[in-house]
Design goal:
Length: 201
């Protein structure tokens, strides 16, 4: 259905304690998308999430882009599946029109990769979403945070804030990730991959 909205979910943990963590880069991207579109997050009545309904990007001919539900689960990262599933059911959105924006340790900082389906790469937030939806066939916007240094545990690494050097680049990086989401919902996965994968090859 062409009039079916998209559900774009930014993963992270709730509360100011986690706001600057690498694990919360999904929240950062969603906040920027809301800012760009004038969307305001509000607690959703049917899901443990803050949501904003917006139009994202422009379609050919200058028409407004598709209707998009921006959502940030208000649960902890590892139990993101319930809110995502509840929102998808409430709005009647099929998995192929769901995009999850998340941190990715398997690609370098300042790299963005997009895919449809595939594994979760040890990401517990994605694993819970897959379980709740009953399928892996949803889009992922993978925002690279790089591997932990030395012998640091991955769980500890993603729950730390970005370094000072990374924070200098972070606004541009988050802006690029928001652009990737916009291109995905307006022109499709191949267009978004073509631009963002090639840019960082």
């Amino acid at each position: 259905m062409t009039d079916q909205p998209w559900l774009v979910v930014g993963l992270g943990n709730p509360g100011p304690k986690y706001a600057g963590n690498r694990h919360n880069v999904g929240h950062m991207v969603l906040d920027l998308l809301a800012e760009r579109t004038g969307g305001r997050f509000a607690r959703h009545g049917r899901a443990q999430a803050a949501a904003a309904e917006v139009r994202l990007g422009m379609l050919p001919g200058g028409r407004p882009g598709p209707r998009v539900i921006l959502a940030k689960p208000s649960t902890y990262m590892n139990v993101s599946g319930g809110p995502v599933s509840a929102l998808a059911q409430y709005y009647g959105i099929e998995p192929a029109r769901i995009a999850v924006v998340h941190d990715e340790v398997d690609i370098p900082f300042d790299s963005i990769k997009l895919k449809l389906g595939g594994g979760e790469g040890g990401h517990n937030g994605l694993r819970d979403i897959t379980k709740a939806l009953g399928t892996r066939d949803y889009h992922r916007v993978r925002v690279g945070v790089g591997r932990p240094p030395g012998r640091m545990d991955t769980a500890d690494y993603v729950l730390r804030d970005f370094t000072g050097t990374e924070r200098k680049e972070l606004p541009i990086f988050v802006d690029d990730a928001a652009d990737a989401v916009e291109l995905l919902v307006t022109e499709g996965l191949l267009a978004a991959q073509g631009k963002f994968h090639a840019a960082r090859a």
